[in-house]
Amino acid sequence: MRNILFLTLTLSLAMFISCDEADSFDVRQDALVDYVTDINGTWTLHSVHRDGTDITSHMPSATGLTLQVEAGSFTLGSSNLPFPTLGNARTPFSSGSWSFDDDYQPTSINFTNGTDVIVTSLAMPLYASNNSSMGLSFSMGCGATSYQYNFKK
Amino acid sequence: MKMRRFNFNYKTFIFGFLALPLVFLFVTACLEIKSVDASDSARAGSTQTVTLNVLLDTENNDQNWKRLVIGVCAPKEWKVAENAVVTFDSPLNNEPRVGKGTMILDDGAMDKGYKKGRGADGNQNGLTWAANAEEILGFDENYGEMEWVMYYSDQVDAGNTSVEGTVSISLKVGSAHSAAKLGYWVGVHDNGFKMADHIEASTTTGAPSRWYDYEWKKMAITGASADATDLTGPAPTYTATVAAGANGYTFDDIITIGFDAKEGYLGANTALYNAGEVYMCATALLGDGTTVAKVDRSASAKMTLSGADTWSKTIWPPAYFGVSNQIITEIHLNFQNADGSIVVKNPGYGTDMVFGEKCQ
Q: Which terminal Cβ of chain A has fewer Cβ within 10 Å, N or C?
């Protein structure tokens, strides 16, 4: 009984003296601020995947597609490639306005010509700024066939 | 053998005189399909209503106890007998045998007189109505996999009138084919497929026979399955393939066209076996029926060697054919060498290989 009491007191003392005052860190004030994701600029298509298979080399003109993004507006360069806004299921459009589903943590981009709204998923997360890669995933004609376009800036 | 002499007497005369109207009663009813209202394209799985606008000319012979017979030729996969509903409507309103109602599926039992098919001579020939239709009308441009399904009406009192009525056919569109040429036949039970010239007084002269009429109309099917075939084109071939992802494609997809120079007629090599260059000559059929051809063997039409005598080309059809705001319903393909002196078409047919959309 005396041993148990001694052991308990010893452990309690050891735990008590092991406690130390917590370190304090300075947090940058801007780290707590959400920034609107910025993708403005000219994006050039880098690779095309169809159902997960890279078919870029099968389409010599694939890398010619450009996507000009400015504040709220976009313009597609001429290309022999499809784009979600170019499907013949509706009136195709190669320019118009765009918006994120969430300006701070976007998961998709909505392209519109004022009448039709085409929702295109982002294939990878975007930074708030200085994005140099952007992936769009979408389907065109046959809904089960998916495409991923990887753009670089 | 002793010949029996026919004795003409007053009883025979009276019987013949009385029977004469009965003969006319059943012999004349001329039909013509004036128009077919059907969509040029339909989505697989949808229900489509086809309307036949039909002229019935009794040629002033009192038409009583008539049964209208309708034939529908559609892909077997559509299971018309199970899924279709056929109705007819007209101004004929002579109770109780009015000119409207739901038509009855011919089960092919031939257990009643009106259920026994009549051939080109107008006589019952031991065949069903459907078998007669297949034998006499066939399947037009369809390469096969079609069937005729027949319907008949209740008895109708048409009187002495000449009327225009409608036949409405509700069809459930299947997914096994990207296009089919549907057939529609109208006739009456007591003349069937009898072939005869029109008489001077007839107003149904647009029909091929005084007694019946038929029409064919193509329907493109969107959203068909990945292995769907175009029934109006040649039977499927392995010489060329069109593919996108595992689940199929429409012509809004990036498609890859393959050509296997080893898959010729009956498995022999094609004339482009061991060719140094292969060019794809393609023609797009658009939704409005017009075509856009790209058959110039330009650099953009050159195919890439992708294996042992297999070639491929990946395109986005709207841009490749320069089509905007139009639906491409089919692509017709042949393959040529650089100077066009060798042309490979569908083996055994000598026509372009035809591909429709295939999407699960």
A: N
